[in-house]
Amino acid sequence: MNNHTLSDITVDTWVQGGPLELTDLIGSVVLIEVFQVNCPGCFIYSLPRAVDLYQRYHQQGLAVIGLATAFEDYDKNTLENLKKLMATGEVIGETFKALDQYGLLSQGKLSWKIPFAVGMDRVVAETEPVTDERVLRYAHEFLPNFEKLTDDQKKSVLQQVRHYLEQKSMRAETFERFALQGTPSCILFDRKGALKDVSFGQIDYKQAMVEHFLAEK
Question: Are residues 116 and 154 in the same domain?
């Protein structure tokens, strides 16, 4: 794992519970829950789990931050829709469809609130040209075992990466700095602000990991 620290998390705009200086949270175990507004899995699985962890452990020194980002659907994963969500519980797009289908909405809105601070990742226009070097660098970042693939597999991966980069009009700073694979993702720091884990998807060991680092003095 690289040497990232808490200060490498970029929050462009605080929507709830801020502004915070993340370095002021050193001394706490810090869980950054990374989600997109247009991400059903984030609202069905990982955000409720983060709320549960916050309620169980914040008295013991766990700080949880929700970080909304955008690596796709840039028209939906916006600061405006995040503000609407936090102010009224209103969800949009695929999130609305899925939660509505599963009967998880109350009068068309979220039936629960996010109790911790929430901000928006810095999302800026993508200006870097798509070169062979950049495609290769990206493949290495996201697939640590890239060199072990067969030539045909490498070719296929590079084609997919090139296609992705060519359609990518925006760049989300924290998402890319930590080489996240998608949302929901979770970034965990110990009490000293050192990076301890980056995970993608609904991770069952999150609670045990939080307890482990809370126990460290």
Answer: no
